[in-house]
Each structure stands twice: as structure tokens, then as C-alpha cells.
Write a structure and sequence with these properties.
alpha+beta; Alpha-D-Glucose-1,6-Bisphosphate, Chain A, domain 4; 27% helix
Length: 251
């Protein structure tokens, strides 16, 4: 192989990874989705977070189903929003779950309709896909959804997160609400996915504190806090409408 060819040789899985980029860009945001805390933000891994680092694994065995891991992941990607709990909104990008695509997340639950955040697809192949969080999201880190066959030949669906709370406020909320909310969400998703293959699966959950230290140097992350920014946006809505009406009368 020539030197020129060697210089341009790509890893075998290069096509499955998102290309390095700076600020996130949301293309063709769906009507009704609030793109408040994603556009212009950077993605953040566990080292950019604040709180203790956790690895949590949720898995369900699709016993009795002949679905292959590839089929499970194909359905998971295609029907991801349908598997979420009622009221939780995931706006799939038009290009689907593909490397580099950005999705907006919201809520239609009473009292939380103003919460807005999102994710970027970091990696995607036939048997797995990974989301990474933007600045301001409750968690700094990523979650990988995958499927494989266990030692008994049974297909298993799994979600595994490696995260820190993004800022001091989120860290305070972890034992009060965030741990439970996240556990409930991914258990629901896996139960719904199992039901999609006519399996009443029992979701196993593992939680490990990988690093008990807090990264105090990242306390300023709170300036991007999506809940605070979304709340301020909601509080200011009447004033924006009043201002827009005034501008309309002047024009």
C-alpha cells in the first residue's frame, strides 16, 4: 500500500461513529419541539460532569422469542419514541438513529411541559447505538442500547449508562428524584421492547458507583442547567407574547 493510501486508511468502524464537531446543530426541528437547550451546546462525557460517576445496567431476556439481536436493535431504533413512558417525548431526527444526528427531548406531562433537552447519536451499528448528552442535560455521559445472545442462546436487550450529574443542582436531585426517574424510564423502555416481541420480561438492574468523587472544578456547569433555563423560558412566555403583540401593532 502506498504512503498516501496508508494516511487515508480509516478504521473499520469509522462509519458507525459521529464525526467530531463543535457546537450541536438541530436540523429540521419538528413542530412543537422546543430547541432551547441543544442548539449551540457541546456534548459532554463523564469527565465534564460534576457529581459522582455511576454505571447502571438494565437488561431483559427475550426468552421464548426467536428474534435476533440485529432484529431487536432494528426495531428499537425504528420505534424508540413509542417505547418511552407516556408523556415523555423523543423527537427522532428525520435521518433516524444515525451517527451524528441530534434529537430533541421534551415532556407532555402536566407540570413539566416546559422541560426541554436532547441527545446526539454518538455511535450506531447493527447491534447497538449510543447517545451522548449535551451541556445542561441532567447527566453528563452516555447511554448504550444493545442486544446480544447470552450463554443459553437467549436474546438479551440491554441499556447501560455511564454518567455523572451535570452540575451541583442535579447532584442534589440524584437521590431525591433523578435516580428513580431514570431507573423507571429505562425499565419501562425495556419492558415495552420485550412486549413488542410478545415477551413479558423481568428487567434486571445493576447500579455501581464507579467514582465517589465530585469534580468541583465543573461547578459552573449550572449556568447551562436545562431545567432552570426551561423554567425561565416558560415564566417569560407571557412577556414574549405581549412584546410580540406590541410589535405587531406597530408594524
Amino acid at each position: 500500500m502506498s504512503e498516501h493510501g496508508a494516511e487515508h486508511k480509516q478504521p473499520r468502524d469509522a462509519a458507525h461513529w459521529a464525526q467530531p464537531s463543535g457546537a450541536l446543530r438541530v436540523r429540521d426541528a419538528p413542530e412543537g419541539a422546543l430547541n432551547l437547550n441543544v442548539e449551540g451546546r457541546r456534548v459532554v462525557g463523564p469527565l465534564q460532569g460534576f457529581g459522582r460517576m455511576w454505571q447502571k445496567t438494565y437488561r431483559v431476556r427475550l426468552e421464548g422469542s426467536d428474534a435476533t439481536p440485529e432484529e431487536v436493535v432494528r426495531v428499537w431504533k425504528a420505534e424508540f419514541p413509542k417505547l418511552w413512558p407516556k408523556g415523555a417525548l423523543f423527537h427522532t431526527p428525520r435521518a433516524g438513529i444515525a451517527p451524528g444526528e441530534v434529537a430533541l427531548i421534551g415532556s407532555d406531562r402536566p407540570g413539566s411541559r416546559w422541560i426541554a433537552t436532547g441527545i446526539m447519536v454518538l455511535y450506531a451499528d447493527d447491534v447497538s447505538f449510543t447517545y451522548i448528552c449535551p451541556e445542561g442535560h441532567p447527566f453528563s455521559g452516555w447511554i448504550t442500547f444493545s442486544s446480544h445472545r447470552d450463554d443459553d442462546g437467549v436474546t438479551v436487550a440491554q441499556a447501560q449508562v455511564l454518567i455523572r450529574a451535570n452540575d451541583p443542582l442535579y447532584e442534589l436531585m440524584m437521590p431525591l428524584a433523578l435516580h428513580k426517574a431514570e431507573d423507571d424510564q429505562w425499565r419501562h423502555v425495556l419492558e415495552s421492547l420485550a412486549a413488542r416481541f410478545s415477551v413479558a420480561g423481568c428487567v434486571e438492574t445493576e447500579r455501581v458507583c464507579v467514582d465517589r468523587h465530585r469534580l468541583w472544578r465543573n461547578y459552573k456547569n449550572i449556568r447551562h442547567n436545562a431545567i432552570l433555563r426551561s423554567l425561565l423560558h416558560a415564566v417569560a412566555a407571557p412577556f414574549r407574547r405581549r412584546s410580540n403583540r406590541a410589535k405587531g401593532r406597530e408594524s
